Amino acid sequence: MRKITLTITLFLSIYGVISAQQEKGIVGVTNWLNNWTQFKPNQEYYGEPTQILTGDITEDTKLYKRHVYLLEGDVFVSNNATLSIEPGTIILGDYKTKASLTISRGATIIADGSETDPIIFTSNRSLRRSGDWGGLIILGDAPTNKFGNGSVASFYGQLKSATYGNTNFGGENPNSSSGILRFVRIEYAGKRTVEVGNFNGLLLASVGKETVLENIMVSYSAGNSFEIWGGQVDLFKAVSYRSNGNDFSFNYGTQCIIDNSLAVRSPYASNSNGSRSLQIKTYNEQNEVDFTRNPTSVVAKNLTLLNDSEDLKSHISSGLINEAVYVGHNASLDMNKSVISGFNPAVIFEDKITLNQENLERIKFTSMYFNNCNGNIFLENNSNNEDLEDWYGNNAFSNVYSKSSNTETFIKLDDLRRPDFRLRINGIIATRN
Predict the structure, then answer these.
(1) Residues contacting 323, CB < 8 A, separation 6+
(2) Facing residues of 289 across strands?
(3) Which PANTHER family match (predicted)?
């Protein structure tokens, strides 16, 4: 009896250790990236367009898989219309007219693909490059902290003034719905404009909580992959791949939960301003926001943030690798059970943040796996991070630090047809069930 008891105790102890190890980073019993993602989109042939989308869509419209659509110029879905897109539909953003698609406030998009039949927004060029076309913009009526809400009109320098009403965002309905984006890929977006710089792959401005945002991949964006301004957003199984800008950027009072999501950066793809995997800010300029409204608050769980470098030391010394996470003044981050691998350093706090208990308690890192980073957590422009190391290195936070190569850390990176970015610890696949 005693032997059985000891055996059970030993088994439970081992199981407990394994379970704890399995929880970090993106998770799943199977590799949820299979079938719907594409890490080599330039090798795909999407066919020639058979239909054209242009101008304003002011009544309910459906796009069908049997057609390939060419998006020309700045296209708006407005007048409370719904744009429905069948699984497997291809929409080509026109390079010549730098096309974009905007779902205006009050309108809806139902882009509900499937694992084996994703909906694809991509470039119409034969040799596709980052910034070939604009991107997808969804404008809602959830709150933002900007004075007078906001507008993206500055993106559209050539629009007639009558159209500017379709570029406004913001309201008082945090639970509103702008529709569904599920099993959707957005490729080669992020055109550059003279007025404001690059578009983003997917811009969500004041989008409400009832909007479904799951299994979305943004790859090779010249701007940020996911840009979120205000609203109350839940992002699940979001993927950013080789963005020139930030992978996930939150600003203007966003209230967001981002869960089980992946960002893969390349040292050769980054804009001149320096780009991060996760950027959390409450404002760009203090005079543009109302501080009586909620600051930006992000809960990030089971994220994998990976820098895909074959020579990390050389790339860091060449200035090609930045921090993974940047937290701005007056913003909150609760990050847990996540992996940060191969950055310089892992995290930077804006230098306006005072390192006191109140601020540190609203910027949380728990059950993290910091791997192969050139330093862990720093205050901007300050090389002495002893206080931060002492605070977040406390056993109560259960953070783990390692110096392993990417091939040792993740299950399978060498096959971009079917990569597996789940954590490998002693040959055990990361999972959570």
Answers:
(1) 276, 343, 344, 345, 346, 347, 348, 378
(2) 146
(3) LIPL48, SECRETED PROTEIN
Question: Strands, DSSP E only, in 160-296?
Answer: 168-169, 179-187, 192-193, 197-198, 202-205, 212-219, 226-229, 232-241, 248-251, 255-265, 278-280
What does DSSP say about strands 369-371 and 339-341: parallel, antiparallel, or unpaired?
parallel
Q: How far is CA 103 from each of CA 179, 236, 251, rounded to the nearest angstrom? A: 10, 21, 20
Q: Are 204 and 138 in contact (CB under 8 A)?
A: yes
Q: SS3 for 212? A: strand
Residue 422 lies inside a defined structural domain of this protein: no
Angle at 377 between CA 374 and CA 379, to 5 degrees: 110
The CA distance from 114 to 119, in Å, is: 8
247: left (phi over 0), alpha (psi -120 to 50) or beta: alpha
Domain membership of residue 190 (yes or no) is: yes
263 is in which domain, residue-wise? Answer: 28-404
Residue type, 344: N
Q: Which of 156, 157, 155, 90 is nearest to 123 (CA)?
A: 90
Q: Please say if the pLDDT value at position 161 is more than 70.
A: no
Q: What is the pLDDT of residues 256-289, one digit of tens each?
A: 999 999 999 988 776 656 789 999 999 999 999 9
Domain count within the chain: 1
Taking alpha carbons only, the member of 232, 251, 259, 258 closest to residue 140 is 232
What is the identity of the amino acid at 38? Q
Task: Provide the residue type at 229 as one letter.
Answer: W
CB atoms within 10 A of CB 141: 21
**pLDDT value at residue 268:** 79
The answer to the question of residue 175 being in a domain is yes
Model pLDDT, residue 22: 57
> Which single residue is written with the structure tokens 């559209």?
156
Cβ(274)–Cβ(345) under 8 Å? no
Cα 271–Cα 275–Cα 277 angle in degrees, nearest 5: 140
**Residue 69 domain-assigned?**
yes
User: Of 172, 173, 171, 99, nearest to 137 (Cα)?
Assistant: 99
Q: Given phi > 0 = left and psi -120 to 50 = alpha, else beta, which region is 321?
A: beta
Question: In residues, how long is the chain?
Answer: 433
Give the domain CATH number at 202: 2.160.20
